[in-house]
Amino acid sequence: MGNKEDIEKNIEINDENVDKNVVSEENTENASAKADNSADKMTAEPTIEEQLEAAKKEVEQYKDKYLRAVAEFDNYRKRTLKEKAELLLNGSEKAVCAFLPILDDFERAIADKTEDVNAIKEGMQIIFNKFNKTLESLGVKKIETEGKDFDVDFHEAVAMVPGMGDYKKGKVIDCVQTGYQLNDKVIRHAKVAVGQ
Q1: Residues 148 and 172 sit within 8 Å (Cβ to Cβ)
Q2: Is 115 helix (H, G, I), strand (E, B) or coil?
Q3: pLDDT digits (tens, 9 = 90+) for 173-182
Q4: Closest Cα partner for 142 from 171, 175, 170, 173?
Q5: End-to-end Cα, the chain, rounded Å
Q6: CB burial class (10 A; 0-12, 13-18, 19+) of residue 70?
Q7: How far apart are CA 178 and CA 111, in angstroms?
Q8: Contacts of 137 (CB under 8 A, 6+ apart)
């Protein structure tokens, strides 16, 4: 019988050991689960305060970029306004410089005390030709009217001439005032008489 009692004692001891092992395994699993949860909490989501700080930093960066862009645009606007003002004030410099030699020629012609009408007329013709060449160099062209059809883009009718026949109907008969173009833009329409 002693054997039976020893076996039962051994079974009870083994049962206690098994129970202790099961409890210790559960404790180990709980401890590891808690450790995993705390590790997940550390690596997973930042706290609200951390998110708020990150958002504040991002807002500051965007604000800085915005202020820099506004300042840069304002500087650009001021610079272009200044350049436009300078162009308006000094834009005619090229034209004025081109006409100064012609002015010099007029001064010399007026200072000349000659009484020879042909010499005065020839001098005026030379100055006139120089003036036309200067205008052409600046892009100014005379609008041709002789024998042309009336065109409202280039001509302004100041008179209608009746009885010119079918051949002259709608054609420019006479130019009262010459018209000019500047770089293919009409700056003054030619005033013409048109056949009716």
Answers
A1: yes
A2: coil
A3: 888 899 999 9
A4: 175
A5: 153
A6: exposed
A7: 30
A8: 98
Please, how many CA atoms are within 13 Å of residue 28, restricted to the half-sphere of its CB?
Answer: 6
**For residue 175, how many C-alpha atoms fall within 13 Å in the half-sphere facing its CB?**
16
**151, 118 in Cβ contact below 8 A?**
no
Output the pLDDT for position 29: 56
DSSP character for 44?
S
For helices 93-111 and 117-137, give the axis angle rounded to 10 degrees: 180
pTM of the model: 0.54
pLDDT of residue 32: 56
Task: Copy the structure tokens of residue 146.
Answer: 């002789």
180-182/155-161 β-pairing: unpaired
Say how many C-beta atoms besides its own lie within 10 A of residue 169's C-beta. Answer: 13
E strand or H helix that includes residue 192 = strand 190-195
- Integer Cα distance of 22 and 38 in angstroms: 24
